[in-house]
Structures are given as C-alpha cells and as structure tokens.
Specification:
The protein has 280 residues and is of the alpha/beta class. The protein is built from 9 helices and 14 strands. It has a 4-stranded parallel sheet, covered by helices on one side. A 3-stranded antiparallel sheet has the order 5-9-6. Strands 11-12-13 form a 3-stranded antiparallel sheet. A hairpin with a 4-residue loop joins β12 and β13. The protein is globular. The termini are far apart. About 2% of the residues have low confidence.
Length: 280
Amino acid sequence: MAAGLRPARHVLVLGAGVAGLAAAQKLQAEGFRVTVVEARSRIGGRVWTDRSSGVPIEMGAAWVHGGANQNPVVPPLIAAGRNLVPSPETIGLLTPTGYASAAATERAWAEYQAWREALEDTPQGTLAEALIRRPLSPLARVFVNAELEFDGGAPAARLAVRSLTEGREMPGGDRMVAGGYDGLVESLARGLTIRRGAEVVSVFCGDPEVVVALRSQERLTAEAVVCTLPLGVLQTMTGSFLALAATLSPKSRVWPWARWSALWASGIGCGGRPTFRPGR
C-alpha cells in the first residue's frame, strides 16, 4: 500500500508479531510515521519466550532454519546479542517396551528419508494417502509424526504431500537461540510506536483515510494500513474484512474473491511442546 504514498504520511500496522514489527521498521526507515497496533499486552506474536522459571523457555518459535544468508531473522538476533547454537541431532525413539536400539533407529530414519524423497517426485494428495500407497514400518512412521505432523500442527490426513518441499529455500541446518528468541522481538521493536491492548474489530477504507475501529470503541485513522494479522484472527473477522473488500474500488482491490475464499477455507495447525525441568 505504501508504494503510492509520500513519506511522512501515517501508516497503521496491524499486529506486532515479527512480520508486523519488521514491516514497521522498514516503513519508518523510509520516512513514514508508523503506529503498530497489537491486541495483546505482549508483542512478538508466535515468538514468545517465557522466563517465569528463571530460564528462557520458548513457548512459540524455537528454531532458526538456515544460515544468515537465507534467514532474515539472523541479523536482528545477532544485533540483539544472541548467539545461535546447533540444534541437537541425537534421536531417541521411545517404544512401549523402551528405547529402540541405535541400529533400529538408524534404519527407521533411512527408511523415512527414502519415503520422503520418493514422494517429492509425485507431490499429489495427502500424507495419509501417501502412507497407504507406500506404508512405513511402525518405527519409521514415528518420524512422520515427529517431523511432519508436529511441524504442521495437524494429522497426516490434513497435510498435503507438497508440504514436503517447504524449507528448501533455507538450507544449512537448524539452530537454537541461546538467551531467548525474544531478542528478535526486542531488536525489531526498538524505536517503534506500539499500541498494546488495542484489539481491532473492523477496518474501513475511506477516501482519503483508512479508519480502524478498536474494541474499546476508539477510532484510529491513517493514510494506509498494513495488515499482518495471523490467519486465525483474520478468519474470526470475516464480516469485517468482507466490508473492507466491498469498500475497495475494482482498481484497488488487490486480492480477487478467489483468494479471500481460499483464506477463509485454509486450516490452522495447532501443536504442543512439553518442557521438562530436571529435578534438583
């Protein structure tokens, strides 16, 4: 939206996750006056480092994929003084009778990798259908759960085979953030104007201003809005964004109706990650 604006004009960025903060920094660097609007009391979105136990525990994002040349989160993390450490590669498969042997685990891993490579040549259907066409041993099936269903936050029946190619653009292995992933949020939020506890309920594109209504009944105005709200939030605001689409002229309606429909039809994954604290 900002491409047609003159610098020094006001832009509202909806959502103070990593995407919103990064967009706000970019706009501010280009000379725009920016306000970030966040519904929660905390910022960071899916980057959430909990320190209540005295040590940083990642409740959301935990890994950094790829190297500095591929992953844009690396420079701000380094600027925040965080170190990246290799993710442990040790694999242990726990079965009903105890841990599988190292040899059995290695065979299962090789079987799983061969299964993935074979599927990438014919990226059709769901992972569940692929498991029927090409079954895996029980041990190898564990890797489908640990790597694909866990990352996707959904069972194999809801995950497409084409998702296997995700992450190829960021080679170089996985690393973790020593000191907490929240260093990324601190770095990106520096120098920004952020309204916390400001829940957006509707957006109206007028002429010449955009009006954003908050749950508190306050109205915010600006010349443009950058929306970085996550999919789940957008889906709860269906009526509001239908109204927004209706206010746009055919010339300015960037998203055709087919894309709006796809957004509403998309699924959302949900995963959990247990954290264990050694006893003293």
